[in-house]
Design goal:
It is built from seven helices and six strands, in the order H-E-H-E-E-E-H-E-H-E-H-H-H. It is α/β, with parallel strands linked by helices. It has a domain at 16-165: Thiamin diphosphate (ThDP)-binding fold, Pyr/PP domains (Rossmann fold, 3-Layer(aba) Sandwich). Strands 1-2-6-5 form a four-stranded parallel beta sheet, with helices on both faces. Strands 3-4 form a two-stranded antiparallel ribbon. Strand 5 (113-117), helix 4 and strand 6 (142-147) form a beta-alpha-beta unit.
């Protein structure tokens, strides 16, 4: 009954009606899908832009070079967003990526690239808006690298403490994106503290309701196992 009829799991959610084309089991594979949708968007001329999200662990996958080259040559409305959370599974990204990272590589291809504090909501919004607007104007693709951190481990049951120090994580927590955004909203008198607290309560209730609905929904029937598959 969910977006993927109970089959996709949290890693493969897709809803084409919302413009969410879905993920897949290949690390960084979504960049090829996004290039295809960007090609369609350019042909249709409706001002749509495709966005491919991926982590620092996908930076060195070959598909990016193929699609980026094509996107630059054909001026496709495509934005690459790299969420650099510092660690590719259990290894710091600088031990796995030669040079200074994805932004430098993108610029070498003639693509505009921006690096921002991924824990600064406004900085991310402003950079993304600039790149998206340029893509809509037919200026081609862009790359946005957001430097952030993941608090948990790489997978369930892995705490993420064996390869990261408490001091490092505490430093990142001091720059938590949500906390910083809340402080900014209060400082600029956009929201009062009590309004933010109300928002927290409303969000908690929505999450609880969604979880409860998922628990009550029926599992897919066995006969559906071969539906919606290619082979």
């Amino acid at each position: 009954t969910g977006y993927c009829r109970g089959k996709g799991g949290e890693m493969h959610i897709a809803d084409v009606s919302l413009g969410i084309l879905g993920a897949n089991g290949i690390v960084g594979g979504g960049r090829g899908i996004a290039a295809g949708s960007a090609f369609t968007a350019k042909r249709e001329g409706k001002g749509r832009v495709s966005v491919a999200f991926f982590g620092d662990g996908a930076v060195n996958q070959g598909l990016w070079y193929e699609t980026a080259n094509m996107a630059v040559l054909w001026k496709l409305p495509l934005i690459y967003v790299c969420e650099n959370n510092q660690y590719t599974e259990f290894t710091h990204w600088q031990k796995l990526t030669a040079g200074e990272g994805l932004a430098v590589r993108a610029r070498a291809m003639g693509m505009p690239a921006m690096e921002v504090d991924g824990n600064d909501v406004v900085a991310v919004y402003q950079a993304a808006s600039e790149l998206v607007e340029a893509a809509r104007q037919g200026k081609g693709p862009g790359t946005l690298v957001c430097h952030t951190i993941r608090y948990g481990g790489h997978h369930v049951g892995e705490p993420g403490t064996a390869y990261r120090t408490k001091e490092e994580m505490e430093e990142w927590r001091q720059r938590d994106a949500i906390t910083r955004c809340e402080k900014r909203l209060i400082h600029e008198k956009i929201l009062a503290p009590e309004e933010i607290e109300t928002l927290h309560e409303e969000i908690e209730e929505r999450i609880k309701a969604a979880v409860e609905k998922a628990r009550q929904d029926p599992y897919p029937e066995v006969k559906e196992v071969e539906e919606h598959v290619y082979a």
